[in-house]
Amino acid sequence: MDNLVQTKPMPRLFPLSGKAIDRRCTPVNGGARFSLRLPAASISTASAALGVELAVPVNRASAANGRTALRLGPDEWLLLLSEAEAVPVAAVLEARLTDGRYSLADISHRQTGVVLEGTAVTDILNGGCPLDFDLAAFPVGMATRTIFCKAEAVLWRQSEGRFHLEVWRSFAPYVWNLLAIVSREYAV
């Protein structure tokens, strides 16, 4: 049998090889995060209360007025908003969803975010995430629960070269270090 190195070109053997000048990983400081669960019958009422459209397809994001809703399942959203809005948002949902058939959990203490951007961002993410980041497969506005190496994460594509990655705080140093290691491939 032929030696693999002799039969395959180097870029094929090392798909992360390459250089890119433009790449940044920035921690997201502050902000409130909520896990919202509610039945289909309550989506329009909750959308009006939040000022963000919740009736988007699963694995899509919706944003308005500084609030973002990532639809992760048929009855599940991750809400991202400012810390100052945490208490008012909880109060307005409680006032509007009078049937009590919803769950709103403040998970701000559990999660943190990282914004990843640049020309090599999809290659860097593929260093630890098995998703296809081609624009046709993972378009702008898509958001999904996934993994980065061994850490559960929520990933949202904000633009062609910009992603928002949410991870549990206990995994944040692990994910940050792995991003740094993979990013070294793209250092100039």
TrEMBL record:
Transmembrane segments: none annotated. Keywords: Oxidoreductase. It holds the Pfam family SoxG. The keyword Oxidoreductase applies. InterPro entries: SoxG, TrmE/GcvT-like. GO terms for molecular function: sarcosine oxidase activity. The keyword Transport does not apply. Its EC number is 1.5.3.1. It is an enzyme of class 1 (oxidoreductase). Gene3D superfamilies: Heterotetrameric sarcosine oxidase, Probable tRNA modification gtpase trme, domain 1. This is Sarcosine oxidase subunit gamma. It comes from Acidocella aromatica. The lineage of its organism: Bacteria, Pseudomonadati, Pseudomonadota, Alphaproteobacteria, Acetobacterales.
